Amino acid sequence: MCGPIDVTALDGIQATATVLLGLLVVGLLKSHAEILRQLHELGAGRTEEAPQPVPVDLAVGGSTGAKAHDISGFTPDGESAAIAVLGAPHETLLAFLSSGCLTCNGFWEALGDGGDLGLPAGMRVVAVTKGPGDESESAVRVLATGGQTVLMSTEAWSDYQVPGSPYFVHVDGTTGRVAGEGTAAAWDQVVGLVARAAGDRRRLRNGAGRPRDGGRGDHIDQELTAAGILPGDPSLYPTTPPLTGDNA
Questions:
Q1: Closest by alpha carbon to 120, among 204, 56, 183, 196?
Q2: Are residues 24 and 94 in the same domain?
Q3: 98 and 217 belong to one structural domain
């Protein structure tokens, strides 16, 4: 037969087990808290809104008059590079894109196809991402698979006050000014922006589109029609009447 149970010994064992269990729980809680802290530092659980570009009507695309800037930064391979915009004999389209923007994927594909982009002859296209400190170089290398010019430069985003991606800036190199800028959801919208900005400048040089010197206006009308701008298009007319009298 078994002897009498020592209640005091059982109480001691139970107390010891309770203490050990408590220490184990405290240790697990501390470990869990440390894991959560590290995940928070890495950005887990944060909900950050992507920067939203300012609303710009791409159907207008008139000159903003803003001063343009030369851009410098790095290629996706990490080499220093600079692109002259001011004083260039050609026009430049700066496509501000990123690797994490879903809408940007279509533009990366369009630029990488190597086909006709539908832009004016001689226009240079430069894809500009943020610099290596703000953008993944490896991700940009994967996207920049075609023959397009790609520059990584956070400074350029600041110089042109780019509100988010995708964003496009059309620069007239001869004047050193921004001829048009805005957001777009598809490449044909970008082509329309460029065409309308070019049409605005032609109309200014030729008396707002009025024929001069033997019918140059007819030539302008043909170019506008080819760009999809037909007679009666709202972009051909000012939306605000000119001031007259004492208000002029």
A1: 196
A2: no
A3: yes
What's the number of domains the chain is made of?
2
Do the Cβ atoms of 202 and 219 come closer than 8 Å?
A: no
Q: The tokens 């620069």 sit on which residue? A: 171
* Domain that residue 24 falls in: 11-41
122 and 32 belong to one structural domain: no
The pLDDT of residue 6 is 62
More confident call, 248 vs 162: 162
**Does residue 50 lie within any of the structural domains?**
no
Tell me: do 79 and 190 sit in the same domain: yes
Q: Any idea which residue has 């501390």 for tokens?
A: 30
* pLDDT over 50 at 211, yes or no: no
H-assigned helices in 42-136: 104-112
Local confidence band at 138 (pLDDT 50, 70, 90 cut-offs): very high
3-state helix, strand, coil in the chain (%, to 5): 40, 15, 50
The pTM of this model reads 0.59
Angle at 189 between CA 184 and CA 193, to 5 degrees: 100
Weakest-pLDDT range from 65-79, 111-125, 187-201, 229-243: 229-243
Please indicate, yes or no, whether residues 17 and 88 belong to a single structural domain of this protein: no
